[in-house]
Amino acid sequence: MADREKVMQWLETCANGCEDGCPYEYKNLVYRVECKADLMSDALELLKEQKPRVMTLDELIEIYIEFKGNAYLVRLTMFDLQKIIMYMDDGICRLWAGKPTYEQMEAVKWE
Q1: Distances from the Cα of 97 to the Cαs of 27, 38, 62, 65, 89, in angstroms?
Q2: Domain tally for the chain?
């Protein structure tokens, strides 16, 4: 499985002329073609994961919910969907597709 953070770091490095080093740990510039091929393969894998697909049970039960005014996340494994929808409609909580960092939570404004 492709490492999303590594792919993002490589894309930034590549966009800056590959001067800060290669996250794929290719030390020699001769191997840049292989490095870019690995990047394209990993990026394609990540893009394919975004296509609509049937979710696994693990994905369904691992939901991260943030409550307004609280600086922590609750990982729900058993939940009442109607209550979550009610809390979302009231603006009390919001759901994240994955576990966000505290910086990400602070950066996204509550609506």
Answers
A1: 35, 26, 9, 9, 17
A2: 2
Instruction: In whole angstroms, give the CA distance from residue 46 to residue 35.
Output: 17
Question: Are both 20 and 43 inside the same structural domain?
Answer: yes
Work out the number of other CB atoms within 10 angstroms of the CB of residue 50: 7
CA dihedral 95→100→102→104, nearest 10 degrees, is -90
Q: What's the domain range around 65?
A: 57-107
- Residue 96: strand, helix, or coil: strand
26-78 pLDDT, tens digit per residue, is 655 556 667 777 888 888 888 887 776 666 666 666 677 888 888 677 777 66
pTM: 0.47
> Which residues lie across from 93 on neighbouring strands?
67
Dist CA 92 CA 54 (whole Å): 29
